[in-house]
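A favour, since you know our structure tokens better than I do. Just paste the record in under my message, thanks.
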Amino acid sequence: MVSTIISTIAMTGMSKAQDFNDVAYSIFKDSIEMRTVVGVGNETPKLAAYLADHLKKGGFADNDITIIPHEDTAAMIIRYRGDGRSGKKPILISSHMDVVEALREDWVRDPFTLIEEGDMYFGRGTLDTKLNVAALVATFIRLKSEGFIPSRDIVLAFSGDEETAMATTKVMTKDYRDQIDAAFAIIADGGGGRIGEDGKAFSYTVSHSEKTFMSVEVTARNTGGHSSRPKKDNAIYDLSKAMLNLSKYEFPVLQSELTQAYFEKTAGLVTDTVIAEAMAEFAKDKNDKTAVATLRSYPQYIGATGTTCVATLLKGGHADNALPQSATATINCRIFPGISAEATLDQLIAVASNDALEWRIINNVEAAPESPLNEVVMGAVERVVHEEYPGLPIVPAMSLGATDGKHFRMAGIPSYALTGIFIKSSDGFSHGLNERVPQDNLPRSMRIWHSLITEWAG
């Protein structure tokens, strides 16, 4: 269907927005049906070839499309060439083609078939994030058909393993840096519109940073012995005391220009007056103890006030009739931007207060700087979003999760996560069973991406 629509447009020279909405829908449907999951049978390379084929039929030259094979997956880079009249560096827009595994026996519907039911699209990747991939490709094809000549190059970069190792993003930033270099990057994976359970939009977020992910193993060791001869020193007890210390500890309060703006903006949006007052006071003074205590009593806000570390896994002993020779806990930390992994580990060691414990960072810690508030980005977002929802608050935010944007920031490209998707919290099933997205997000995303790109590169 996609090729038919594109061919008709090419022959007649006529098109309308709905034609390209149809292109986006067909790409979306076909992409959902490709099992772009890491491992045996990974169809991410197939999806990359499929997208390249349609972009070529839409007017993009072979040398404007680069497919990058990597192990069982692939990434791709598409360049929409401008005339350079702005004298500015390109704009990079990134998303990912891969999805999290989904087992048919666990789902109500086939996760790798696009199912339309009620006002929803169901399927793995509908929300995270094949709708964005489809809308961006269809928007590129639409702009090309309209004869749009950007004032600077626009680059699409689709990674192929964002949900796992992010190796393809690293490859792009290291080996294809000249192709993805940009004034800033827009990450079409995160951010977007928030809708209340009453169906009304109440804010639009743009993520400017991500916390650093660090997992640590801490182990207590002991000579052990027979359980009939208990000793005062015990590996499980020693580890438990350290974990109890951690459970009572609160990391220092931190605030950046971004989180200060986030709390200042969000204070006017929440209906709970206690939370609203705490946000407003914290934005004015991060040392306000009452405000800090209030915000840190809510799991959804504590992460924006500083680093968090929490015990997530536990193992110990080797037999029920033997004293444990070792006990190990895993602690997961989400480190505030600007704080090092080493400093955080030192703090954990101090809190545990047991020099005999063994500590080990078990992941490759990759810290990225916070992207500065950017009027070019935020001004365009405000104008475009207000075309859809006049007066809607635009809120800069810090993501508690991880996206490809981390690697672009590490490579020196400021990155901002946003999409054209508006959704209720109760419909947010990314990575979960029966993932879904409201159907009205496809045409809305087409409008928003078209407007944003022409704002930034018109």
